[in-house]
Specification:
The chain is α+β, with helices and mostly antiparallel strands and about 290 residues long. The protein folds into two domains: about 5-120 and about 280-290, Diaminopimelate Epimerase, Chain A, domain 1; about 125-255 and about 265-275, Diaminopimelate Epimerase, Chain A, domain 1 (Roll). It has six helices and 18 strands. It has helices at about 35-45, 75-90, 135-140, 170-175, 180-185, 225-240, and strands at about 5-10, 20-25, 50, 60-65, 70, 95-100, 105-110, 115-120, 125-130, 155, 160-165, 195-200, 210-215, 220-225, 245-255, 260-270, 275-280, 285-290. The chain has an 18-stranded mixed sheet that branches. α2 (about 75-90) packs across α6 (about 225-240) and α3 (about 135-140) packs antiparallel against α5. The termini are close together. The model has no long low-confidence stretch (mean pLDDT about 95).
Length: about 290
């Protein structure tokens, strides 16, 4: 019987057992796509990653990401968690940066080893369809008065598309209950299969926004911390000048409603119609072991 080594980390954490859980498997090149999907389903975290080899290819490390239901081309917390494992368990010493090769392209990650924060530079955003407020409110089981009509409900992508929904208050955030029938009706006609709602009111006075992310399509009813969607959110915030300016450097809280409090750092700049996006957070190693194949 063969075996493969793996580690478990909490990403965008505020200490152990916070943030978003991730299982990272090393030297996984011998695994078939079917076997990777079976393992990801068994682990049943929002995502599981597979580092194909300890060696670089095209100046980066080849990585595949699976939700419990399917492979995805890019995701945020798997990027930072996997980079952390590569630095600590493959390279074995502090470094300044590395690159991960995903299906969505190359994603560079930099390390602030003093502050213990990892940063990923996401792809330039694309802005897609604007959705109807009534249709989305039905999905959220939320009266339209709780949605901030000053800003659009829109599909945004930096590698994995999401529907961004601006809400007015923390009360609105707490009221969201996904109507699964309406949700699946909606995503039949959208590129994005996840929905992120956000509010300017927060649980912690230190933070700038509270967010929730729902992705039943991927087998994730609600995510504890979503780096890809938060990168899309950062792009949205500067495009529409949500804070009244073309550049942001903010703290975002997520996961409070499912008892996995998470903290994400967002930086974005809209300069001459080109938006650059960085998403950062801390990573905490929880466990390691061997998986029998």
């Amino acid at each position: 019987m063969g075996k493969i080594s793996y580690s478990i980390v909490d990403v965008f954490s505020q200490g152990k057992y916070t943030g978003n859980q991730l299982a990272v498997f090393k030297n996984a090149e011998q695994l078939s796509e079917h076997k990777m999907q079976q393992i990801a389903k068994e682990v049943n975290y929002s995502e599981t990653t597979f580092i194909l080899s300890d060696s670089k290819k095209n100046d980066g490390y080849d990585v595949r990401i699976f939700t419990p239901n399917e492979e995805v081309p890019f995701a945020g917390h798997p990027t930072l968690g996997t980079a952390y494992i590569i630095q600590n368990e493959i390279i074995g010493e502090p470094i300044e940066k590395l690159t991960l090769n995903f299906k969505a392209g190359q994603i560079p990650v930099s390390f602030d080893n003093e502050q213990q924060i990892l940063w990923m530079k996401q792809n330039n955003p694309t802005f897609g369809r604007i959705l109807d407020i009534n249709e989305v409110s039905d999905v959220l089981n939320l009266n339209t008065e709780y949605i901030d009509g000053r800003f659009p409900i829109q599909e945004v992508s930096t590698g994995l598309p999401v529907i961004i929904v601006p809400l007015k208050s923390l009360q609105a955030i707490k009221k969201v209950r996904i109507n699964k029938e309406k949700y699946y009706e909606l995503i039949e006609h959208t590129d994005a299969k996840a929905i992120m709602v956000f509010s300017p009111e927060t649980y912690s006075a230190d933070n700038n926004l509270n967010v929730r992310d729902f992705a039943d399509y991927f087998g994730i009813p609600e995510d504890a911390a979503t780096g890809s969607s938060n990168g899309c959110l950062a792009s949205y915030l500067v495009k529409y000048r949500y804070f009244g300016k073309s550049e942001i450097d903010i703290r975002v809280e997520q996961g409070y409603e499912i008892k996995r409090p998470s903290l994400l750092f967002l930086k974005a700049r809209d300069e001459k119609r080109k938006i650059t996006v960085y998403v950062g957070g801390q990573v905490e190693k929880i466990a390691q072991g061997e998986w029998f194949l």
